[in-house]
Amino acid sequence: MPQLEEHSDKSDVEVAEKFDPASYYEQAAGRLVIDPQQAKVQFGEALASTLKLSPDGSTILWPQPADDPNDPQNWSDRRKALHLLVITLAASIPDFDSGIGWLVLPPQGWGGIFWVMLMRRYGRLPVLFWTQVFALAFLVGATFSPDLATFTAMRCLTAFFGCAPDLRQGLYIVTDIFPFHLQARKLNIWTFGFIMHVHVSPFLSPFAFGFLVARVSWRWAYGIGSLYSAVVVLLIGLFMEETMYDRHLDSDLQQILPGIQYRLETLIGITGYKMAKYRSRWSEIVWACLNVVWRPQFILVAFFEAFVFGFSVGINVTNVVFMGSPPPVGFEFSQFGVAGAYATPILAVILGELGGRFLNDRIMKFTVRKNKGIFEAESRLWACYAAMPLFICGFLTLGAGIQHLNKAALILGWGIAEVAVMVNTVAVYAYCNDCFPRRQGEISALLNLARVLGGFSVAYFQVPWATKSGGIQTYGVEAAVGIGLFLLAVPTVQLKGRYFRVRHNIMI
C-alpha cells in the first residue's frame, strides 16, 4: 500500500506539471470544475492544490490568473469596477445618440464584426478610443449639418463607429477582468448598460430631449448628445487600460511600463501594433465569425434571441407612433406625454437587472451543487424559462392596451416585456460566452447582427398590421413566434448542448 500511494502521488505530480490551466479553460468550454473538492477527484490532490481560488476559498478561478500583477484578473476590485463603469457608460452611447432622432441603426450590426477583428489584433483600448473619437466627430457633424443629405451621412458614420463599445468591447472587457463565477453577475450589470443601449438609452434621449425639443431647436438635443459622448471619450482617455492579456505569452512581453509616454502609446495603438505579431493571424481573425456562426450550440439560441430581441426593438420604435397618433389609431399623447412615457422601460430594465442578477446567481449555485461541483453551460438557459412567460404576458397586455386604447395596459405591458427581454438576453449572452471563451467579441458581434436583422425591420410592418388587425393579433402572433422558437431552441440545446460543445469545439 505505501508503494501504491507513493506511485499515485508521483502520478499526480506528473499530471500537475503537464496541466495547462489556459488550455483546460478553453478545451473544457461550457463544462468547468469550480468546486475545490471536486477538483481533487477530477485532477488529483497535487494538481488541485496548485489551483488558485476565490478569496473565500469556495470557488476555483477560471481562467487561472497568471503570477503577474499586470494580468487584469489580478487587478483590485476598485480598478475593475472603474473599468466596468466606463464601458457601461460607453455602451449606452450608440443608441442614446440614435434615440435622439430614431434614425439609422442598421450600420451598427455589420460594423461590429469589423471592430472585433481589430480588437483581437491590436487590443481593446485603442479600438475603443479611436472609434469613440470618430463617432463623436461625426455626431458633432450631424449637429451642425446644413442639409438632410449631410445629416444622414453623419448619422450613418456615427452609428458605424459608435457601436464598438456596446456588445463587442463590453463583453471582451467583462471576461478579461472578471473570473468565470462572477461573469454572469457582471454581465448583468454590463447588459443593464447594453440593454440601456438598446432599450433605455434610446429612451433616455426621447425621455429627456422630448421635453427639450418642444421648446428649442432639435440641434440642442444633438449638441447635448455630443457633450455626453465627449465626457465618455475623456473618461476612456484618463482611466481605461488595456485589458487584453494573452496567457500563452511570456509575462515580460506584456509588461506595463511607467510614464505618460507608454500610456499614450497604448491608448492610440502603438503598443497594440507592436504586440500584433504575437497574436492571432489575420487569416484566423477574418474567418473567426464564420467559424462560430454555424455551430449548433450557437445558431439555435442566436436565432431564438434574434426574434425575441427583435420584436422588443419593434415595439420600442412603434410605440411612439401609437402614443402620438390621434384616436382611433392611437392615444394622442402630447409631446410631453410621449416623453414621460419613456420612464416605463427605464424602470423595467432596472427591475430586470436586479431580478436577473439574483436569478442567475441562484441558478448557477443550484446547478453546481446538483452536478457535484461541475458547471454546465446549458444551466444558464434555465433563466429563459422565467423570462418567456413574462414575454407572452407583456406582449399580450401591450397589444390589448393598443387595441383598446387603455393607457394602463400600454404601460404595464411595455414594462413587463422589457423585464423579460432583459432576463432572456443575459442568459443567452452568458451561455454563448461560456461555450466560446476565446470568442467573446465574435459572439457579441454576431448576436448584435442577429438582433439588428431581426428587429429593425419590425417597425415597417408592425404599425400597419396593428392598425388593420388590432394590437392583440399583432403582438399575440409575435409572442407566439417567440415562444415557439423558445420551445424549439432552448430544450434542444439543453439536451444536446454538451454533445455539440464536445463535437464542435473551437481551439483556434
UniProtKB/TrEMBL annotation:
<feature type="transmembrane region" description="Helical">
    <location>
        <begin position="189"/>
        <end position="214"/>
    </location>
</feature>
<keyword id="KW-0812">Transmembrane</keyword>
<feature type="transmembrane region" description="Helical">
    <location>
        <begin position="475"/>
        <end position="493"/>
    </location>
</feature>
<feature type="transmembrane region" description="Helical">
    <location>
        <begin position="220"/>
        <end position="240"/>
    </location>
</feature>
<dbReference type="GO" id="GO:0005886">
    <property type="term" value="C:plasma membrane"/>
</dbReference>
<dbReference type="InterPro" id="IPR011701">
    <property type="entry name" value="MFS"/>
</dbReference>
<dbReference type="Pfam" id="PF07690">
    <property type="entry name" value="MFS_1"/>
</dbReference>
<feature type="transmembrane region" description="Helical">
    <location>
        <begin position="82"/>
        <end position="105"/>
    </location>
</feature>
<dbReference type="InterPro" id="IPR036259">
    <property type="entry name" value="MFS_trans_sf"/>
</dbReference>
<feature type="transmembrane region" description="Helical">
    <location>
        <begin position="381"/>
        <end position="402"/>
    </location>
</feature>
<protein>
    <submittedName>
        <fullName>Major facilitator superfamily domain-containing protein</fullName>
    </submittedName>
</protein>
<feature type="transmembrane region" description="Helical">
    <location>
        <begin position="298"/>
        <end position="322"/>
    </location>
</feature>
<keyword id="KW-0472">Membrane</keyword>
<keyword id="KW-1133">Transmembrane helix</keyword>
<feature type="transmembrane region" description="Helical">
    <location>
        <begin position="408"/>
        <end position="431"/>
    </location>
</feature>
<feature type="transmembrane region" description="Helical">
    <location>
        <begin position="342"/>
        <end position="360"/>
    </location>
</feature>
<dbReference type="GO" id="GO:0022857">
    <property type="term" value="F:transmembrane transporter activity"/>
</dbReference>
<feature type="transmembrane region" description="Helical">
    <location>
        <begin position="443"/>
        <end position="463"/>
    </location>
</feature>
<feature type="transmembrane region" description="Helical">
    <location>
        <begin position="125"/>
        <end position="145"/>
    </location>
</feature>
